[in-house]
Amino acid sequence: MEKKMKKPCMGRQKIPIAKITNKSHLQVTFSKRRTGLFKKASELTTLCGVQIGIIVFLFSPANKAFSFGHPDVDSIIHRFLSSNPQLHSGANRLIEAHRNANIRELNMELTQVVNELELERKRGKVLDEMRKASRKQCWWEAPIDELGLYELHQLRMAMEDLKTS
């Protein structure tokens, strides 16, 4: 009986710990590692009953901040500051940066929602115009109170024909 040789596979490989230069690889790695870090922090809070606050800044054109906190980031920072009053100035800058990042993110979301709303309004206007054009072609689809005497007479005749057939 002949033994089959296994193909060597890449599997998990050790990567060198150095700054990633490729922007897309950097973004993917950052996203995956951030998710893993926040997941571990969540597990730690569940298993050990601890309070954890993590703030991560991504130095990019957006200068985005990501945070995880249990019960929430603000209460952890407040607790930290009240137990370490000498750190207030640096921590206040950190809190302010975190809030500013959240405000920027919320403003970007608001802008996106407003743009989507404007698109929907434009679509609604187009649909209204299409409906009005359709009513001119298919007058019987219009509400009865918008029909003229001639259309009402035609509708009555069509109903009577339908009734007898």
From TrEMBL:
Q: Which domain of life is it from?
A: Eukaryota
Transmembrane region positions? none
Give the MADS-box domain ranges.
10-57
What SUPFAM superfamilies is this protein classified in? Answer: SRF-like (SSF55455)
Q: List the subcellular locations.
A: Nucleus
Instruction: Say where the protein is mainly found.
Output: nucleus
Q: Does the keyword Transcription regulation apply?
A: yes
Q: Which Gene3D superfamilies match?
A: 6.10.140.920, Transcription factor, MADS-box (3.40.1810.10)
Known InterPro entries for this protein?
TF_MADSbox, TF_MADSbox_sf
Task: Name the Pfam families for this protein.
Answer: SRF-TF (PF00319)
Q: Which UniProt keywords apply?
A: DNA-binding, Nucleus, Transcription, Transcription regulation
Q: Which SMART domains match?
A: MADS
* Keyword Secreted among UniProt keywords: no
- Please give the PANTHER family that the UniProt record associates with this protein: MADS BOX PROTEIN, OS02G0164450 PROTEIN
What name does this protein carry? MADS-box domain-containing protein
Tell me the classification of the organism that encodes this protein: Eukaryota, Viridiplantae, Streptophyta, Embryophyta, Tracheophyta
